[in-house]
Input
Amino acid sequence: MEKISKKLTRSFYLLFAICFTYLTLNILFKNTFCAAAPLIITALAVLAALYIVYLLLDICADTLEKRYRVILIVFLAVMFIIQLIVGISLRSDFKFDIGNINKGAWEWVETGSFESFYYYFYFCPNNLAPMAFIYVFSKAASLAGITDYYAVTVFVFCVMLSATMGLVSLICKRLAGAKSGVFALVLFALSAPFYFMGAAIYTDVMTMLFPVLLFWLYLKSKEKEKLKDRLILYIIMGVVCAIGSMLKFTVFIMAIAIIIDMLLNKKTRKDSWKVGLCFAVITVIFISSFNTYIYAKHLDKDEAYNVNKPYSFWVMMGFGGNGLYNQRDADMIANTPPEERQEKALGEIKSRLKNLGFGGTFKLLTTKSVIDMGDGTYGISDTFNYTPLNETRLRDWVVDGAKHFKLYETYSTGVLAALIILMLTLAWMFVFKKKQQMSRLILPVYLSVFGLWFFLLFWESNKRYFSNFAPLIFICAAAGIDAVVKFKSKTASKEESADAVDEPELESE
Output
């Protein structure tokens, strides 16, 4: 069984490497957002800089082990303050989805209901939980006499972002030592969008913490020898999975990846059903309880049935044009009787695939992949394209189409491309080097990234949708550069040894 597990693991890395090599080439040469030449130059420059930085960190490895906690705390504190200040300065008059979930939550706090937004949530019930999430913290603040709910929400997001960066660093430290943990912090420092994300108060940034937290808890559970201690962590993992997947259901991909990893490992195989049960049961309890409350106190189930779109609607849009949201498809489904919408969407999917043919479908999936995973700004500019309530020059950089946005976008996408290249390099190393413990430790992360990419192939295209998994790419990139440096060090040592053997000995006088 263990041999089969190893072969399956290696086969997966081969599949990942092939698919992401193709994706990376398209991101670099056929990027929807950036010109190829400046993007490639930026990515190569970032790779060179990161390699030099890691060599320097490697030299200081012993010092970093001693000072790691101080470095981590100082970095997170500084980033938190910057994100909070930037987030407050980028205050906007939100509209559409982001406006509905935030203003709906704040109306709920003030009036005890979000009645002005009922119609929207009949159309988009998936955003009910994110609205409730914002409501909980805004309500708590109101009880303390604080009524600036935007500032409260930004504060909560900044806390979650700091926790995300801290956990990524701790995970990298566990995988490859303190130098890798500090390197992860360097990656965040170089990634410009992370300075602005505190103001991107929507579901993508809202759920960044959850996949990383799930993986960290999973690593902690593998350290526990007593079943009781593991069960406590499994229950916590179930709660994290439930909350995260309610906010954005792609978080559940990490839960699936963890179960797959447990099934492939003989040491954790016996516990896989326990973890799976925690994920399933706790998630079902949370979702059913929440829906029972919402439809008993606020929304009407019959009206929801009349307005709701089937999930196949988003798949249908994913196979039209470039897969982006379009109002024509939305109107078509809205004008179809509720009992016929599923059949209508499935019929449209079948028709579009037939018209595309194999070649057209492959081309479309390639285009969708670049749209979904080829924007280094993580699509957060979508949350800034509204009437500003504060004047700040930062908007010249982060608002799509603004004066310096293209420069910001090219740099940010170059950084992302460099990270994907490092992630991809490590995957190829796992394919060609059989005996690598890291390939088993980091498998759930690679499975999650692959799972999200595969899911997005069929879903509506959007440059924001992969952003909550972006920290997982940071983990892979940090592990990747560590493996590259170690490989080059071993190669250099072997060459030096060979030279020493071949060098003729001088005769003594």
